[in-house]
Amino acid sequence: MGVKIAVLCFCIVLVELSVFLDRADGLPNGYRWAEWTTIGRGVKWLQNCDFPGYDIKFEHIPLEKCSKSCIDTSGCNAFRWFDGWCYLKNIPAWSLDRVPSLRGSCGFLPWEFSSTGFIS
After folding, report:
1. DSSP code per residue over 26-91
2. Which of 81, 83, 103, 116 gives the lowest tally of CB atoms within 10 Å of its CB?
3. In 3-state terms, what secondary structure has residue 107?
């Protein structure tokens, strides 16, 4: 029984490593840095996208203040702005998947993911 568990664990590690290597460019699903706009302080930002879930706080503020609010909020590593609302997020590195959205924008703080080895 112990051998079966060890083999299963080894397979899970290989799958996780494969996912990590597929995302070695720092972005999930083959996206490249060139798609993202770099704004003040090195924040990566993109129009018409969302990071669903992982909200830790939301506030009604202008778009240009959303990234600064994330920087200033403990635990925030990504954000989404939509219709005047800024959604601050704490996203696990393995789940930094963006989805298309007809409106709004999203962004993330690359340095918050660098210690995981996910983004260099």
Report:
1. SSGGG--GGGSEEEGGGEEEEEEEE--S-EEEEEE--HHHHHHHHHHSTT--EEEEETTEEEEE--
2. 83
3. strand
Q: Is residue 66 part of a domain?
A: yes
Residue 41 lies in a domain: yes
Do 58 and 86 form a contact (C-beta atoms < 8 A)?
A: yes
89, 79 Cβ separation under 8 angstroms: yes
Q: Which residues constitute the domain of residue 11?
A: 2-114
Q: What is the pTM of this model?
A: 0.68
Question: What is the per-residue pLDDT across 19-70, written as a single tens digit (0 to 9) for each?
Answer: 333 333 344 444 454 578 888 878 999 999 999 999 999 999 999 899 999 9
> What total number of domains does the chain contain?
1
Q: In what order do the strands lie in the sheet with 78-82?
A: 37-39, 43-50, 99-108, 78-82, 85-89, 55-60
CA distance 81 to 67: 9
Identify whether 47 is part of a domain: yes
pLDDT at 38: 83
In contact, 81 and 46? CB cutoff 8 Å: no
